[in-house]
Amino acid sequence: MDNNSSNKNNSNKPNNKVNMPKFNLNWMYMIIALMLLGLWWGSDSKGAGSKAVTYSEFQDYVKKGYVSKVLGYEDKSIEAFLKPTAVGAVFGADSTKVGRNPVITSRTPSTDKLEEFLQAEKEAGHFDGSSDYPPKSDIFPAILIQVLPLVLLVALWIFFMRRMSGGGSGGPGGVFNVGKSKAQLFEKG
After folding, report:
1. Is the model's pTM score more than 0.85?
2. What is the SS3 assignment for 31-65?
3. Are the CB atoms for 151 and 93 separated by under 8 Å?
4. Helix (H, G, I), strand (E, B), or coil: what is residue 81?
5. 117-141 pLDDT, tens per residue?
6. How far apart are CA 99 and CA 113, in angstroms?
7. Residue-wise pLDDT tens digits, 56-95
8. What are phi and psi of 12, to 5 degrees?
9. Is the dihedral of CA 172, 176, 182, 184 positive or negative?
10. Distance CA 149, CA 91 (A)
């Protein structure tokens, strides 16, 4: 009898559970996606292997034979690609962090003076590389090429996660509803 009275007391107690919101995995997916996006943009080899120098330092590097290729742009900026043997001399302690194509950047007084300087260094035997003057490329296609594959992967991931949870347009059950019979039992009568 004591057992029945204790059961009645337990059933009369109010439910003291706090209704916490359900943990949503979409936040975790977004955090992971943002981390991957940060790693993608942070691993650009040109950013790590690039060093801004003055024009006189650029001239010294060319005279020492460290430069293999020079690109001059319309806005008087130049990019000089270094030879692999010269990376340690130019970057010093940061030479281990440099990517495959180490670059030094500078500004030239004019493209004519840059061409005269490079021609004089070729004749002196200090510069055996090539020089080119391409137009400066637009940044939008470069960003689109880098970001578009990642956006497509994230969109595909979200699509499959919604399908598996039953919230997508695939109807109830989502992808786990494959092969299930939809037959119904009708009673006579």
Report:
1. no
2. HHHHHHHHHHHHCCHHHHCEEECCHHHHHHHHHCC
3. no
4. strand
5. 989 988 988 888 888 878 777 778 7
6. 30
7. 999 999 998 888 899 888 888 898 988 888 888 887 777 6
8. -85, -10
9. negative
10. 33
